TrEMBL record:
UniProt name for this protein: Uncharacterized protein
Superkingdom of source: Bacteria
Length: 145
C-alpha cells in the first residue's frame, strides 16, 4: 500500500518512488509549446532522453503545488490580460488532470492502478463525473478491487 501523497508509482519502471525527493515530473511539448505526456518518474535513473521538461516532484505537492499546477492552465487575474486571456499551455487536459489528482488527491495514486478493472468500470458507469475521485470512494476502490 502506498503512503498517500508520499509515495508514487514510477511511469517508467513501475516500481515505487518512496520519497518526493526521489521523483521528477516530466513532460513534452508540441511545436506550439503546448504540454502533454506528463509522467512521474524516479529522477535521473528512469528519465527518458526525449522529455525536454523535468521538475522535482516536490514542487507539485501541497498548496504550493496546487498553485503551480493552476499556472499551467490560467495566468490568473493579474497576468491574464489582452492576448494572454484564456492562455493555456496544456494540450491534453485528461493527462494533466490525471497528474493533478496524482499529486493532490489522497489515495488516487493507489486506486489508479485499478482503473482498468472491468468490474470497477461497470460499477462506475452511471456515477457522476465527481464521484470516482473523491477520497472516500478512492479508498473503497483500493479495498474492493
Ligand atoms: Zn523508475
Amino acid at each position: 500500500m502506498l503512503k498517500p501523497l508520499q509515495e508514487w508509482i514510477c511511469d517508467t519502471c513501475g516500481k515505487t518512488i518512496t520519497s518526493a525527493d526521489d521523483g521528477y515530473v516530466i513532460w513534452r511539448h508540441d511545436i506550439d509549446q503546448r504540454d502533454f505526456d506528463f509522467k512521474i518518474i524516479h529522477k535521473f535513473v528512469c528519465e527518458p532522453p526525449s522529455f525536454p521538461s523535468s521538475v522535482p516532484l516536490g514542487e507539485f505537492l501541497g498548496s504550493k503545488g496546487s498553485t503551480y499546477l493552476l499556472s499551467f492552465i490560467s495566468l490568473g487575474k493579474i497576468k491574464a490580460r489582452g492576448r494572454y486571456r484564456n492562455y493555456c499551455h496544456v494540450l491534453d487536459f485528461d493527462e494533466f488532470v490525471d497528474l493533478y489528482r496524482r499529486v493532490q488527491i489522497p489515495y488516487y495514486e493507489e486506486a489508479r492502478k485499478k482503473f482498468n478493472n472491468p468490474a470497477l468500470l461497470a460499477e462506475m458507469e452511471d456515477a457522476s463525473e465527481l464521484h470516482p475521485y473523491q477520497e472516500d470512494v478512492l479508498k473503497q476502490i483500493i479495498e474492493k478491487y
